[in-house]
Amino acid sequence: MKIKNNIYWIGELNPLLRKFDIVMETQWGTSYNSYLIKDELGDVIVDTVHERFCDSFINKINEISNVNNIKYLIVSHCEPDHSGSIATLLKLNPNIQIFCSFTSEKFLKDITNLNNLNIHVVTNNEELKLKNHTFKFFLAPNLHWPDTMFTYLENEKMLFTCDFLGSHFCEPRIFDYNISYPQKYSEALEHYYYAIMSPFKRFILKGLEIVNSLNPEYVLNSHGPILTKNHYLPIVLKKYYELTNKKSELVVPVFYVSAYQFTEQLALSIVEGIKECNFKPLLINLETFDFNQAIEIINNSSKFFIGSPTINRKALPIMINLIANIDLINANGKSCLVFGSYGWTGEAKDQLISLLKSFRIMTSDLSFNVKFKPTKDDLIKAKNNAIKFLKENC
Q1: What distance in Å separates the CA atoms of residue 227 and residue 218, rounded to the nearest whole number?
Q2: pTM of the predicted protein model
Q3: Hey, is 216 helix, strand or coil?
Q4: Tens digits of per-residue pLDDT, 228-250?
Q5: How many whole angstroms separate alpha carbon 349 and alpha carbon 336?
Q6: CA-based nearest residue to 255, from 191, 327, 320
Q7: Which of 2, 192, 346, 382 is a good FRET partner for 17, with 20 to 30 A between their CA atoms?
Q8: How far apart are CA 127 and CA 152, in angstroms?
Q9: What is the distance between the alpha carbons of residues 328 and 360, in angstroms, rounded to a whole number?
């Protein structure tokens, strides 16, 4: 699809994808965006596509130009959904020179399984001047991989931002002014932000500074619709600023699952203790609560409670899965009290504590178990332990 002048989208649509990277839900599919720029001194590709779509990708190149005309490949970062077709492309045209960050250079050999790659490592603000186009490179580490960089096509005021400002959202007409379901796009954008970008907030602010300093007319990202200055680009930038600078309320979540309401009774007593400490409790039954929202809440909480019964000598899988979704970038400084009810054995508490510790999350010595139905004393203990835990971790 032609974007403007000699610039083309040669990506792939994957509307039926429902899980990205195994764990992230993609309710509205995704796209793998790749771009081709035709120039008299040789054509340029910005990023490739997932290996699964490699044949179609090569066909698109040959429809517009020819694989042998490709002189440069710009690698925004090496995640396989963007780099999966590099090896095939280089086997067809081994003369292609790769422009990438220093960190990407270290990854590319292992990702392509090719030796003697023709790589040029770019520096910040470096330029590649061709006959009709000038590309300027900006290092943007940890948005969201350490090797990420942006590329600015100066004459067209187009900024290639890799995953930054993207979304897992797939509609066949790739421009933002063609979006048919704006509410669904907004939800996909926010979900993508929390799942992919939110652990890197200080890097997000630097990325936004780059975008604002360049004032592009187009943002060509790696997933989702191309953003334009007169349509969604200012909306998306505003959303990123709001989400990144959002102040957390003094909310303390209590995540739990309960087979016979015994663990739930402990959770309700903990809620009373949270109230006494003048915090706002948030009681979350993982059996009925939206799991993606629960992940967002736990990642934005500095202290929280986790409760699970012991069934078959282990904690409930959904609780283990919740902990497994805590982002390790921001795990330091978080603290947790674990509780639960058990019948014959009580392994769940120690199992969850061990998992939390492996994620560098502080676990409280006030964590506790009760056998079967909590007594009045057990419920008082649950409330008091919650109060002590919060006072210790204020």
Answers
A1: 6
A2: 0.81
A3: coil
A4: 999 999 999 999 999 999 766 68
A5: 12
A6: 320
A7: 2
A8: 9
A9: 8
